[in-house]
Amino acid sequence: MKALRTLTILFALALMCLPAPSAAAAEKPFKLDICAMPEHESFIFWYAKEQGWDKDEGLDFQIHFFQTGMDQLEALPAKQWVVGGTGTVPILVGALRYNTYLIGIANDESWVNAVTVRPDNPALKVKGWNPEYPNLLGSPETVKGKTFLYTQSSSQHFGMSEYLKALGLTEKDVVMQNMDPAQVLAAFDAGIGDFAGIWPMWLYIGMERGNKLIYQPGDVNAVLTLTLVGDKAFCDAHPDIVVKFLRVWLRGVNMIKKEIKNPKLAEQYHRFWTEWAGQDIEPQMAKMDLEYHPVFDIDQQLAIFDDSKGPSQVEQWQDKVLDFFASQGRFSPEEVKKIRGSGYINGTFLKMAAESIKEKPLGGYKLD
């Protein structure tokens, strides 16, 4: 009995000598509600959650699936989410009606809101008609009067309008036939139309069937982005949490930029589409989608948000898109003025994230 008591005392003393758990370790991770769509940008949220990157920053990602950006906004008043990723038009509507910030650029979608043609289209043989865009294919003579299949008031519609503008044309110079993206591909397969405005995954399906890219908005510096969005009230009240969210995001960006040609990354991206997004796409399509969505690291983010010498690149990109959708009747002149005056483009949190990275570098990654 005495020996047992001695062992008990020694064990208790040993426990007392152990270091007490830190306050950070004792705290539960902060549950962060994130809005996500079946789109490229959601891959980082999903992969970060799987790898535990959120826990490394003291967060617990709660990823909420939405089919569209407008669905996301309708859920915001109920605080179903506070940060996440959204599209070009929803970020404008969010600034107008839902008090949201644009806190980062998720990716450049300029290369996937494309125009395709059949291999025998004469426009493919004309290059550099506009000296300002020497790589642009087509000319007024090969495009005027032709039929364009498109989806009205979409990001792709914006991209197509910039193509016509670069050729000195307007929509009145061609035949515009409005339909949804799936119908665009089906109609084009059936021989209808001369130019097909389309985006993933229908874009890749069409290319596999032999359709050729004739134009991508990036050809004429018409930048379309997906954005990182934040609820203004939450971001202002919890800037530290927003910074941690951005740190997780940027960790994923670093991985993508370094491993973009690594087959293992494409495998994980394909798994994201099939397991989380619920779309049974071909591995080759997943690989193309990954490569066609450039992402921005912290230095690039700071550069495009820099407004020290006038409007930032992000502001210029957004204004161009806003002007287009206003011309389509999506926003009234009063609403355009309200959006521009809302201060919704906010690079403050990226600057804070950059400072935090100097103090504590971002974590690494592994591709399982």
UniProtKB/TrEMBL annotation:
Domain SsuA/THI5-like residue range list = 139-257
InterPro entries documented for this protein: SsuA/THI5 (IPR015168)
Q: What are the boundaries of the signal sequence?
A: 1-25
Under Gene3D superfamilies, the record lists:
Periplasmic binding protein-like II (3.40.190.10)
- Family annotation (SUPFAM superfamilies): Periplasmic binding protein-like II
Q: Whose protein is this, by species?
A: Bilophila wadsworthia (strain 3_1_6)
Q: Which domain of life is it from?
A: Bacteria
Keyword terms, alphabetized:
Signal
Specify the protein name. Answer: NitT/TauT family transport system substrate-binding protein
